[in-house]
# Entry
Amino acid sequence: MTWRVSDELLEQVRRHAQRRGRSLNDWVTTVMAAATDPAYAADEAGQVRERLARAGLLEAPSDQAPRRPAANRVAAARARAGTGRQLSDLVSDERR
# Structure
């Protein structure tokens, strides 16, 4: 692997690895593994986010605040809520 980097950054990375008692190669390998392996994520949600990001399916959070739906749409949704068949009836029908 060839890594094009400024002399300043290379020296920072070398010092960082040295302070941890690791070779430059070992430290860079660990960093690259952590950047690409979901097992390094702190929790299961982090692992899923990592996989989605690697697949190009994770959208970056928007800087915009979410917009509230229009009042008339909320009112219409409330009016429709609870007007269908009850879940217990649907389940009972399926069991017959």
